[in-house]
Amino acid sequence: MTYLIKLYPEITIKSRSVRQQMTRCLTSNIRNTLKRHDEGVRVRGRWDAIQVHLSPDLDPARARDAESALTRISGIHEILAAEEIQVDDLASIAEHVVPLWSPEIAGRHFRVKAKRRGQHDFSSMDLERYLGARLLEAAPDAQVDLTAPNVVVPVEITHNRLQLIRAKWPGLGGFPMGIQGQVLSLISGGFDSPVAAWRMMRRGVKSHFVFFNLGGPAHEAGVREVTHHLWQRYSASHNVHFISVPFEGVIGEILKTIPDGLMGVVLKRMMVRAASRIAERAGIPALVTGDAIAQVSSQTLSNLALIDDASPMPILRPLLTEDKQAIIDQARQIDTARHAEVMPEYCGVISKRPHVKADPAKVAEAEADFDFGVLDAAIEEAVTTRSNRLLERPAPVSDDALLVIDSPEALGSVEAPCVIDIRAPHEREDAPLELDRIPQLQIPFYELQERAPALDTDHHYLLFCDQGVMSRMQALHLMDRGLRHFGIYRHP
């Protein structure tokens, strides 16, 4: 099968040299992507279109996969499935075009659009008029409309070869991947950050990913899945990197040293500081986030300016003025919503009274007490994985393996139970956990991973937090490390 790849209109209006550069880039991207489906694929760039030839003996299922992949390559406006047929005159052209298109134009307005190359004894207008008349004979309830047709019947003749268009699909649009350089996208696995990264990809920007791990292996496994999905579907022509930064120590330092109302802004400042250093080492010139104005307290205009101030490189925000529902709708369109819908909402620091307009002087004063050695250590412990190996990581422990206790009465069924309250100190003070005759320990979640191995293995330790999200992630993290005597206590 032969396919004609039409360039996105914004490419066609560029200068000749830029258009040629983008066409070469797109040709290479198509070849790199389709080789996964057909080793024998041939791709040839032309001025007005790119020709793709799949192997004639390719399995039909693999051919359909290749067609689907073409619709997700940035820079493509339209994909036309074409067949080359030898023709001699107007009648032989109509013999092939009319049976194919007459059902499509029945009861609708149409026009014929012809392109010719070579010497013929008829003009393009002659061809359009002749085919239009023959199509009207075959579909009497159709009407010709040259200005606003419902259907355009494309006909391309090169010398004595007719390119017969059998089907067409819309492309992704945008610019060829890599033509606009590269960025480092902060990704969390929710609705926003994957959509932000996808929008950059569509505009031709090669996107690497950095993930700040706040919830252990289970959290990371979910983010790896959505990142792999984005890469495989929309930028498989390029290998990129996924950098996982262990950030629990940073969370602990924030909770120890930063005033309540400033914690959210400071956390974001620490993230962009770390991301900027990682990007600088890799020669990446900009960061991308999924921030949208006023979506949460750290995303007010004044707080975003404070966060920008912590980064020496530009922070791009492609969702800045989008409504949340529009972001969710686009997440469904690119098929990342299904990941976000099962990803626990997890934030390492939740201020009771967050500042929507944090004072820069107070932020600077608060950060003066922060031990930046903790941030340095997190950056040094970051792990980089190539995009084509993202799913090779061992699967995390299943939730089914966790011991979950839902009531004080059920605690009696556990041998040697001990409840560990993993909330931050101020949360414990505001809402003390009261249990009769059940031992309790108070270990903030940001200290638990370090202290857990030293706890007496004769007890079954049940982790408690207000929403159950943090306790679940911490318990899964401990079980992943081989500590099987930890579970969850959920207070009714």
TrEMBL record:
<dbReference type="GO" id="GO:0140741">
    <property type="term" value="F:tRNA-uracil-4 sulfurtransferase activity"/>
</dbReference>
<dbReference type="InterPro" id="IPR014729">
    <property type="entry name" value="Rossmann-like_a/b/a_fold"/>
</dbReference>
<dbReference type="InterPro" id="IPR050102">
    <property type="entry name" value="tRNA_sulfurtransferase_ThiI"/>
</dbReference>
<dbReference type="GO" id="GO:0004810">
    <property type="term" value="F:CCA tRNA nucleotidyltransferase activity"/>
</dbReference>
<feature type="binding site">
    <location>
        <position position="290"/>
    </location>
    <ligand>
        <name>ATP</name>
    </ligand>
</feature>
<keyword id="KW-0067">ATP-binding</keyword>
<keyword id="KW-0963">Cytoplasm</keyword>
<dbReference type="InterPro" id="IPR049961">
    <property type="entry name" value="ThiI_N"/>
</dbReference>
<keyword id="KW-0694">RNA-binding</keyword>
<dbReference type="InterPro" id="IPR036873">
    <property type="entry name" value="Rhodanese-like_dom_sf"/>
</dbReference>
<keyword id="KW-0820">tRNA-binding</keyword>
<protein>
    <recommendedName>
        <fullName>Probable tRNA sulfurtransferase</fullName>
        <ecNumber>2.8.1.4</ecNumber>
    </recommendedName>
</protein>
<dbReference type="InterPro" id="IPR054173">
    <property type="entry name" value="ThiI_fer"/>
</dbReference>
<dbReference type="InterPro" id="IPR026340">
    <property type="entry name" value="THII_Thiazole_biosynth_dom"/>
</dbReference>
<dbReference type="InterPro" id="IPR004114">
    <property type="entry name" value="THUMP_dom"/>
</dbReference>
<dbReference type="GO" id="GO:0005524">
    <property type="term" value="F:ATP binding"/>
</dbReference>
<dbReference type="GO" id="GO:0009228">
    <property type="term" value="P:thiamine biosynthetic process"/>
</dbReference>
<feature type="domain" description="THUMP">
    <location>
        <begin position="64"/>
        <end position="168"/>
    </location>
</feature>
<comment type="pathway">
    <text>Cofactor biosynthesis; thiamine diphosphate biosynthesis.</text>
</comment>
<dbReference type="GO" id="GO:0005829">
    <property type="term" value="C:cytosol"/>
</dbReference>
<dbReference type="InterPro" id="IPR003720">
    <property type="entry name" value="tRNA_STrfase"/>
</dbReference>
<dbReference type="GO" id="GO:0009229">
    <property type="term" value="P:thiamine diphosphate biosynthetic process"/>
</dbReference>
<keyword id="KW-0784">Thiamine biosynthesis</keyword>
<feature type="binding site">
    <location>
        <position position="299"/>
    </location>
    <ligand>
        <name>ATP</name>
    </ligand>
</feature>
<dbReference type="GO" id="GO:0052837">
    <property type="term" value="P:thiazole biosynthetic process"/>
</dbReference>
<comment type="similarity">
    <text>Belongs to the ThiI family.</text>
</comment>
<feature type="binding site">
    <location>
        <position position="268"/>
    </location>
    <ligand>
        <name>ATP</name>
    </ligand>
</feature>
<feature type="binding site">
    <location>
        <begin position="186"/>
        <end position="187"/>
    </location>
    <ligand>
        <name>ATP</name>
    </ligand>
</feature>
<dbReference type="Pfam" id="PF02926">
    <property type="entry name" value="THUMP"/>
</dbReference>
<dbReference type="GO" id="GO:0002937">
    <property type="term" value="P:tRNA 4-thiouridine biosynthesis"/>
</dbReference>
<keyword id="KW-0547">Nucleotide-binding</keyword>
<dbReference type="GO" id="GO:0000049">
    <property type="term" value="F:tRNA binding"/>
</dbReference>
<dbReference type="Pfam" id="PF22025">
    <property type="entry name" value="ThiI_fer"/>
</dbReference>
<dbReference type="InterPro" id="IPR049962">
    <property type="entry name" value="THUMP_ThiI"/>
</dbReference>
<dbReference type="Pfam" id="PF02568">
    <property type="entry name" value="ThiI"/>
</dbReference>
<dbReference type="InterPro" id="IPR020536">
    <property type="entry name" value="ThiI_AANH"/>
</dbReference>
<comment type="function">
    <text>Catalyzes the ATP-dependent transfer of a sulfur to tRNA to produce 4-thiouridine in position 8 of tRNAs, which functions as a near-UV photosensor. Also catalyzes the transfer of sulfur to the sulfur carrier protein ThiS, forming ThiS-thiocarboxylate. This is a step in the synthesis of thiazole, in the thiamine biosynthesis pathway. The sulfur is donated as persulfide by IscS.</text>
</comment>
<keyword id="KW-0808">Transferase</keyword>
